[in-house]
Amino acid sequence: ASFVLDSRWGLNQGFDHYYDNFDLSKYKDVRLDSVQRKGDEVLVEAYKWLEEKQHEKFFAWIHLYDPHTPYDPPEPYKTQYNDSRYSLYDGEIAYVDQLMGEFREFMDKKNLLDNTVIVFTADHGESLGEHKESAHGFFIYDVAVRVPLIIRFPENKLGSKVIKSQVKGIDIMPTVLNLLGEPIPERVQGESFLPLILGKEERERPSAYSETYWPRYHYGW
Question: Packing angle between helix 39-53 and helix 87-109, nearest 10 degrees?
Answer without folding.
Answer: 20
